[in-house]
Amino acid sequence: MRNWEAMEAFVEVVQQGNFSKAAAKLKVSTSHISRLITQLESQLGSTLLFRTTRRIRLSEAGELYYQNCRSLPEALSSAEEVISTLNQTPVGNFKMTCSTTFGERYIAPIMNNFLLDHPDIELDFHLTNRTVDLIEEGYDLAIRMGAMKDSSHLSRRLCNRVEHLCASRQYIDQHGIPHTLAELSKHQCLLGSKNHWLFQENGQRKEIKVASQYRSNSGVALLDATRKGLGIAQLPDYYVNEYLESGELIPLLTQYQYPYSGVWLVYPKSLHPSPKLQAVCEYLIENID
Amino acid sequence: MRNWEAMEAFVEVVQQGNFSKAAAKLKVSTSHISRLITQLESQLGSTLLFRTTRRIRLSEAGELYYQNCRSLPEALSSAEEVISTLNQTPVGNFKMTCSTTFGERYIAPIMNNFLLDHPDIELDFHLTNRTVDLIEEGYDLAIRMGAMKDSSHLSRRLCNRVEHLCASRQYIDQHGIPHTLAELSKHQCLLGSKNHWLFQENGQRKEIKVASQYRSNSGVALLDATRKGLGIAQLPDYYVNEYLESGELIPLLTQYQYPYSGVWLVYPKSLHPSPKLQAVCEYLIENID
DNA sequence: TAAGATTGTTGCTATATAGCAACAATCTTT
DNA sequence: AAAGATTGTTGCTATATAGCAACAATCTTA
């Protein structure tokens, strides 16, 4: 770990012409400056400046060292300033992901409006039902169904979604209506990305693993299979609301329906969230309904 | 005083890909690295890198900061290297001063030989009888008659010179020979740069202030005045030896002659003398006789 | 699948450090 | 010419700091 502070002190001493002014500028004591310079000269094995009690003069080595170091403090300041301006306002590239249908139907319109208000933000919006590794793949934000527990992420509830367990009239006519969770094992269960269904029994969250001969990470495919009577599926309200209303699909086991299958904003853990992330999150929460 | 070490730690972490390797490279503990990064992020008010326990990834702010800072460690290293090579061997510009005649007659020939052996040294040799301010005017070395006491300089004896008090035969015939120091006040005293003469009485150094109607900072002028019988002068042996031998000038008060009126190498105080200074001093002392 | 290895973080403490005050050496001013 | 102001240096001490060890979270390997 090299002696950066001594270098900065030296450069400042040269520019100010004496130790006292340099100390004042750097907001440290002159004794500190004095010791830093002495130490620097020791490390370099070279006298950098000759000093009387009143005046200083650069040695040839000091002149060389100064010429090579004078730009460094400015460079660091400029680097810090860039970050500072980045912190002032939401700007930059924003990479986010969301499940396909929910994204297309709800998130994309909100984000597009957001971009109209924030022309300095570039959006990179990946719609996929794959659960991506945020940090690994450099995402700023994911919108996930159901909260995830992960030591390196934080999450924030975006809105509440109900997942409806349902089947087509045709399927019910053939297989009957299940009345308990246990009865599900006798039915054709159509699974999505997760290999369990979420219910609530006596106020307790309950994850039920069901055997399945059908899986798809596409809600659209799942919905189609359900409508064609291939089995029972648990689908978010925005897929099935219209079919439940029309009576094409029948809600099942509603007494066990989990009330808060939330939609979450998930982002990498950070003590200092970027303005762009904050702005996007606020805007989404504000405009989701 | 800005946080240079944290910046260096950050750059190293980015380049090494993790905290541990960066710590090893910088020869500090990982805990130190961890705290430096945390502290840097706090100061900048921005998360620079997202970290799982196993992997890190730059945030947009981190990427920007890295791009702006990556060259700084190299720059400092290179500055240090320049000084290091400067320390290896005597090189560079060497500015020195000496009294005119002594310089012309003794020092210049030695320095010219020195330059033949050291083509990398550029000499700036000022011959003057003015007592220059070494530090103020940027001199590396002065050659002075008589040691000087000064808190901001060091000195080293180059050789011994005897200052002969003498007068011309013609002057002695007219004014007689002084036999005591007190008698000098009755004589015409020709003064050089200093306004006193140096003697020894009972082993004690003794500076005698003499009234004078003639002063010159030029030894040549003083010698000429002495030879023409204008008065008594105290002159270094290299001015008068030939005339004392020929009998043209008569030595006076030899029992009071100060034995060690030395010639001194005087240079700005420094804990780490430059190789060029050391080389010049050694060479002069080696070759003065 | 489980045990071991490796990662970054945090509490505790020995160590290093920075500031205060006193000092010596000039320079300035009256 | 003398007193006061200002400079850089140094001893002392309160404070900050860096390393150790323990830890939690993950990845690797058998």
Automatic annotation (TrEMBL), chains A, B:
Keywords: DNA-binding, Transcription, Transcription regulation. InterPro entries: LysR-type_TF_proteobact-type, LysR_HTH_N, LysR_subst-bd, WH-like_DNA-bd_sf, WH_DNA-bd_sf. Belongs to the LysR transcriptional regulatory family. Residues 1-59 form the HTH lysR-type domain. It comes from Marinomonas sargassi. The keyword Transcription applies. Pfam families: HTH_1, LysR_substrate. This is LysR family transcriptional regulator. Signal peptide: none annotated.
